[in-house]
Amino acid sequence: MIKRTLLSKIALVIMLFYFMNLSILVQAQGPEVKFDHVTIEDGLSHSFVRDILQNWQGFMWFGTNEGLNRYDGYSFKVYKPDPNNPNSPGNILMETIYEDSKGILWLGGPVGLDRLDPITEQFTRYQPDPNKPDSLSGNSVTGIVEDAQGILWVATNKGLNKFDSQTKRFTHYQHDPNDLNSLSNDEIITMLADKQGNLWLGTKNGLNKFNLKSEKFTCYLPNPADPKKSLSHESIRNLSIDKKDILWVVTKSGLDTFNLTNETITPYPVEGFYPENGRKAFLEDGTGATWNNLSTVGLSKYDPVQDYTTPKTETFTRYISNPDDPTSIKGNAFFAIMEDQADNLWVSGWDTGLNKFDRKTETFTHYLHDPKAPNSLSTNTVWYMYEDSQGTFWVGSTEILNIFDPNCRW
After folding, report:
1. Quick one: pLDDT at residue 60?
2. How large is the C-alpha radius of gyration of the chain?
3. Tens-place pLDDT, residues 341-389
4. In this prediction, what percent of the chain has a pLDDT beyond 70?
């Protein structure tokens, strides 16, 4: 009798353990949501989408390898270069979509800058012309920013450009070896603006601060003689500014923080550092925490309670995939980080599917491709994510564009 009771208790414990783990597994896999798939057959000009924007009209715009696509909720309209139409775009490969304060779309690519009036649907091409010294300085556009005065600044592979909207002319700012206040290098990789009236430009050789009033450059480079003013490497890959006025600088060899108040630089070691994980390397969430995907061994979060003066790896919390824990993050190499309108954090990358992070439990829910479910995520490798004003997610791979509402269940 005692032996039978003991066996019954053991069986009960095993059953409880099984169902507890089954519950965790089901939770980790996430609720069933319906993914709609959009392909070339549906009118998309190319399956690889490089940039996404929803403009003031509510249209979704997609920059692809084969032109610009506008989606109105029902169908696509594609804009491509047409040699017989001067009002068509100059770029076929659309890398950057930027909307200015007047609702004009500016499109950057490898063959110049395109301006699109979304009302008339007329394009204006701006390309380098050796016979016009006030044309765009470089053919490859790497950044577009509108300042507080409504002036458009365009970064290229051959310097910085200021656009005069009245004369349609460009003023060039390029490296001058005889001027210490000039741009340190003409090949600009990334550009952004701060709240103090400066542009920050990451180049192949140095970080540049450009004062919009004085129009003077200040360059920051590796300087072992002054560690507090020294970058980890001269080649800049990415820039991001958080709400605490800290500039995060991704260089070829590491991660630095630049305090905009006292202009001190602090290096931060990153295990498995890999700076080529895409443009969406940083996200500051609603709590003030800074997330980055610069490592090949997990996702990193910086606690805002900590300061930026001590270069310790302990200041980062790293989330690493654990095959024995179904609620851990899936994958270790990530391309994109996004916070949605409901303050949920989403992470995607190489063979990761979609990871949704629960801040209260510190666990992840996974949305994965299921070959038996035609309305599941089309692939587990996700390059980008975008949430529109209605809370709909646009999720892309190299093959199919996925659309889903995370709050809509089957």
Report:
1. 97
2. 24
3. 999 999 999 999 999 999 889 999 999 999 999 999 999 999 889 999 9
4. 87
Q: What does 214-237 look like in DSSP terms, one character per residue?
A: TTEEEEE---TT-GGG--S-S-EE
Residue 8: inside a domain = yes
Mean predicted lDDT score pLDDT of the chain? 88
Residue (of 130, 95, 98) closest to 110 by Cα position: 95
Query: 62: helix, coil or strand?
Result: strand
Is residue 14, in this structure, part of any structural domain at all?
yes
Residue 15 lies in a domain: yes
**What is the model's pLDDT at position 88?**
97
Instruction: Read off the pLDDT of each residue in 211-236 and give the average, rounded to a whole number.
Output: 96
Can you give the length of the chain in residues? 410
Separation of alpha carbons 250 and 50, rounded Å: 21
- Identify the band that residue 397 occupies on the pLDDT scale cut at 50, 70 and 90: confident
* Tally of domains within the chain: 1
Determine the average pLDDT of the residues in 123-150: 97
Q: Is residue 334 part of a domain?
A: no
Domain range for residue 5?
1-30
In three-state form (DSSP H/G/I as H, E/B as E, the rest C), the secondary structure along the chain is CHHHHHHHHHHHHHHHHHHHHHHHHHHHHCCCECCEEECHHHCCCCCCEEEEEECCCCCEEEEECCEEEEECCCCEEEECCCCCCCCCCCCCCCCEEEECCCCCEEEEECCEEEEEECCCCEEEEECCCCCCCCCCCCCCEEEEEECCCCCEEEEECCEEEEEECCCCEEEEECCCCCCCCCCCCCCEEEEEECCCCEEEEEECCEEEEEECCCCEEEEECCCCCCHHHCCCCCCEEEEEECCCCEEEEEECCCEEEEECCCCEEEEECCCCECCCCCCCCEEECCCCCEEECCECCCEEEECCCCCCCCCCHHHEEEECCCCCCCCCCCCCCEEEEEECCCCCEEEEECCCCEEEEECCCCEEEEECCCCCCCCCCCCCCCCEEEECCCCCEEEECCCCEEEECCCCEC
Instruction: State the pTM of this model.
Output: 0.88
